[in-house]
Recover the amino acids of this structure.
């Protein structure tokens, strides 16, 4: 488990993992948490982003004894499995550099596939 308190705003952030390995196969699941955050600005006031939790998963396979490809790991990963939208800030980011977009406020993008 990784636990962090963001120094700029005191927001709690955590990431827990559960992993499994069997022969050439491996799998993992991750739970990500980002605590609530207040964003202050003198021109538009204070906006609040609620806490946010997301889940990531991955499945991997290690190629054994295959010449040039020996010990190559093939991994498929899906971030934000349930495609949860991070908290929405009330002001467009383009209008003020002090107000963040959804993904910046929660530190988690929408569903993302990786291989």
């Amino acid at each position: 488990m990784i636990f962090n308190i963001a120094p700029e705003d005191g927001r709690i952030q955590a990431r827990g993992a559960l992993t499994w390995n069997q022969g050439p196969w491996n799998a993992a699941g991750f739970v990500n948490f980002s605590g609530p955050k207040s964003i202050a600005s003198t021109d538009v006031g204070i906006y609040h982003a609620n806490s946010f939790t997301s889940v990531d998963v991955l499945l991997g396979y290690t190629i054994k004894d295959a010449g040039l490809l020996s010990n190559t790991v093939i991994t498929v990963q899906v971030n934000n499995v349930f495609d949860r939208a991070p908290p929405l800030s009330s002001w467009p980011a383009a209008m003020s550099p002090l107000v963040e977009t959804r993904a910046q406020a929660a530190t988690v993008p929408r569903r993302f596939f990786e291989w």
